[in-house]
DNA sequence: AAAAAAC
């Protein structure tokens, strides 16, 4: 088997041999042209090979594995209502709950004209609806590791028939200490299966994981990891620590940012900043791990609907979240982990649009800045930002905090010409990024209601024996039966 | 140092 992938030159989804039901769903999503990772990964996944994929979020990664998985499982799709006809055949693991929900929404959309069922399980919410769905049977299960193991223990999830495993954001899962959970899950799966591992970076740990659990994987790399998109303008503003809140307000006002994600390093800091922004007239809400799952979902939902100007987030939102491209992100703190910087600013300037990554930098963050510059292999422009409306942290609702809104004078922060800051005489300067083009796709939380109607119809079961498709069942089931090392060392 | 994730 060759290790090179020919990137197809034609630019439509027709070239992959996907079924009409899948193509229809793709068209309904408004997608016409495969992204680079889709063009590379779809044929490889369809061919049944293991994949080691490096791709940033926003590159179309989810579709690159979901579409071929659905295609491969189609011969096994059943309209029977019997749960036994709907064992879990594809398992997709993600590090965060929000990401799981989002992947599930995508899978649901792509599979909606097929008889395949999908479900998502993650923690922080009632187990019972999840259990009920699992008992009905689903072919494609999206999950965070902890809750999945919970379901396994409760015997509501059986992973004995999984043929395809996806580890999404694998590096993140390792960072978060999921390795023991992953190993436990992997030990529950048939050894003979297809495994797809996606990771932003190929660290030594990731390579070890791949060496242990993948079989002759095809490496697919689209954007060089640790690279930052060329269409993202990165600016670092030096500002006194105590002026950071005022700086955020000022940046939002001066740049006329309709929507922005503001990243903080701590959960408490995020909550506090959200409150202070609200006090200063910015519609803001916080999203972090100490908020309840329903609060997290509501916050994200409201932000996606455009009801919130500033989503103040910890790194729970740094990776994976598929929010339509934002005009800007702000780093309230520089992240301790330089890689998180790359992920955070990946929330802007996506899909070809331009974006600004604005980072606040105070004297005690020199180390973080150095690490970031080392990682992205270039120095960052540092400008001084004079904050003229410092936000009081106590009970000062009047006075200086309010002055910023009325006067909006912007000494200090000046950029190169063409930037978003300058004011033309007596009116609004035009921003470089056309704000009119910016809209948010409505967020759809995982629809749990599958096409139950069609599941009812046909009780006379057609057990798939010889699928007429290009993917023979034998290939789907694996084929080689190579013994797999279980982890040692 | 901090974040995330099962109860």
TrEMBL record:
<dbReference type="GO" id="GO:0005829">
    <property type="term" value="C:cytosol"/>
</dbReference>
<feature type="compositionally biased region" description="Basic and acidic residues">
    <location>
        <begin position="391"/>
        <end position="412"/>
    </location>
</feature>
<feature type="short sequence motif" description="Q motif">
    <location>
        <begin position="11"/>
        <end position="39"/>
    </location>
</feature>
<keyword id="KW-0378">Hydrolase</keyword>
<dbReference type="InterPro" id="IPR014001">
    <property type="entry name" value="Helicase_ATP-bd"/>
</dbReference>
<feature type="domain" description="DEAD-box RNA helicase Q">
    <location>
        <begin position="11"/>
        <end position="39"/>
    </location>
</feature>
<protein>
    <recommendedName>
        <fullName>DEAD-box ATP-dependent RNA helicase RhpA</fullName>
        <ecNumber>3.6.4.13</ecNumber>
    </recommendedName>
</protein>
<dbReference type="InterPro" id="IPR014014">
    <property type="entry name" value="RNA_helicase_DEAD_Q_motif"/>
</dbReference>
<dbReference type="GO" id="GO:0042255">
    <property type="term" value="P:ribosome assembly"/>
</dbReference>
<keyword id="KW-0347">Helicase</keyword>
<dbReference type="GO" id="GO:0003676">
    <property type="term" value="F:nucleic acid binding"/>
</dbReference>
<dbReference type="InterPro" id="IPR050079">
    <property type="entry name" value="DEAD_box_RNA_helicase"/>
</dbReference>
<dbReference type="InterPro" id="IPR027417">
    <property type="entry name" value="P-loop_NTPase"/>
</dbReference>
<dbReference type="GO" id="GO:0005524">
    <property type="term" value="F:ATP binding"/>
</dbReference>
<dbReference type="InterPro" id="IPR044742">
    <property type="entry name" value="DEAD/DEAH_RhlB"/>
</dbReference>
<dbReference type="InterPro" id="IPR011545">
    <property type="entry name" value="DEAD/DEAH_box_helicase_dom"/>
</dbReference>
<feature type="domain" description="Helicase ATP-binding">
    <location>
        <begin position="42"/>
        <end position="220"/>
    </location>
</feature>
<feature type="domain" description="Helicase C-terminal">
    <location>
        <begin position="231"/>
        <end position="391"/>
    </location>
</feature>
<dbReference type="GO" id="GO:0016787">
    <property type="term" value="F:hydrolase activity"/>
</dbReference>
<dbReference type="InterPro" id="IPR001650">
    <property type="entry name" value="Helicase_C-like"/>
</dbReference>
<feature type="region of interest" description="Disordered">
    <location>
        <begin position="391"/>
        <end position="489"/>
    </location>
</feature>
<dbReference type="Pfam" id="PF00270">
    <property type="entry name" value="DEAD"/>
</dbReference>
<keyword id="KW-0067">ATP-binding</keyword>
<comment type="similarity">
    <text>Belongs to the DEAD box helicase family.</text>
</comment>
<keyword id="KW-0963">Cytoplasm</keyword>
<dbReference type="GO" id="GO:0009266">
    <property type="term" value="P:response to temperature stimulus"/>
</dbReference>
<dbReference type="Pfam" id="PF00271">
    <property type="entry name" value="Helicase_C"/>
</dbReference>
<keyword id="KW-0547">Nucleotide-binding</keyword>
<dbReference type="GO" id="GO:0003724">
    <property type="term" value="F:RNA helicase activity"/>
</dbReference>
<dbReference type="InterPro" id="IPR000629">
    <property type="entry name" value="RNA-helicase_DEAD-box_CS"/>
</dbReference>
């Amino acid at each position: 088997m060759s290790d090179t992938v020919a990137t197809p030159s034609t630019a439509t989804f027709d070239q992959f041999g996907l079924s009409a039901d899948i193509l229809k769903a793709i068209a309904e999503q408004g997608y016409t042209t495969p992204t680079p990772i889709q063009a590379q990964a779809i044929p490889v996944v369809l061919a049944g090979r293991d994949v080691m994929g490096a791709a940033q979020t926003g590159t179309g990664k989810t579709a690159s594995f979901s579409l071929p998985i659905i295609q491969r499982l189609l011969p096994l799709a059943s309209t029977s209502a019997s749960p036994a006809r709907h064992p879990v055949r594809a398992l997709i693991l993600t590090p965060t709950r929000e990401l799981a929900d989002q992947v599930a929404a995508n899978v649901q959309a792509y599979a909606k004209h097929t008889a395949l069922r999908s479900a998502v399980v993650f923690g922080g919410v009632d187990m019972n609806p999840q259990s009920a769905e699992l008992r009905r049977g689903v072919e494609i299960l999206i999950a965070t590791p902890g809750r999945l193991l919970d379901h396994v223990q409760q015997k509501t999830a059986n992973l004995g028939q999984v043929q395809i495993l996806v580890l999404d954001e694998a590096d993140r899962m390792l960072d978060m200490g999921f390795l023991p959970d992953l190993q436990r899950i992997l030990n529950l799966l048939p050894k003979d299966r297809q495994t797809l591992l996606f990771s932003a970076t190929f660290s030594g740990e990731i390579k070890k994981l791949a060496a242990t659990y993948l079989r002759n994987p095809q490496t697919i790399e689209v954007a060089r990891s640790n690279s930052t998109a060329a269409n993202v303008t990165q600016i670092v503003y030096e500002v006194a620590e105590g002026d950071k809140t005022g700086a955020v307000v000022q940046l939002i006002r001066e740049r006329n940012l309709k929507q922005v994600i503001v990243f903080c390093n701590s959960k408490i800091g995020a909550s506090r900043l959200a409150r202070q922004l609200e006090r200063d007239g910015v519609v803001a809400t916080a999203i972090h791990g100490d908020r309840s799952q329903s609060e997290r979902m509501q916050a994200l939902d409201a932000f996606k609907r455009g009801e919130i100007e500033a989503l103040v987030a910890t790194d729970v939102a740094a990776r994976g979240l598929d929010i339509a491209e934002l005009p800007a992100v702000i780093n309230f703190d520089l992240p301790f982990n330089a890689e998180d910087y790359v992920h955070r600013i990946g929330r802007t300037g996506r899909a070809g649009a331009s974006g600004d990554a604005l980072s606040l930098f105070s004297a005690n963050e020199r180390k973080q800045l150095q690490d970031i510059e080392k990682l992205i292999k270039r120095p960052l422009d540092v400008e001084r930002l004079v904050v003229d409306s410092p936000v009081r942290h106590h009970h000062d609702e009047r006075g200086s905090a309010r002055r910023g809104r009325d006067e909006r004078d912007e000494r200090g922060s000046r950029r190169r010409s063409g930037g978003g800051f300058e004011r033309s005489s007596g009116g609004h300067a035009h921003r470089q990024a056309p704000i009119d083009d910016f809209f948010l796709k409505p967020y759809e939380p995982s629809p749990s209601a599958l096409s139950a109607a069609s599941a009812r119809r046909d009780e006379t079961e057609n057990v798939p024996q010889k699928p007429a498709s290009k993917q023979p069942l034998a290939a789907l089931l694996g084929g080689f039966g190579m013994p797999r090392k279980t982890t040692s060392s």
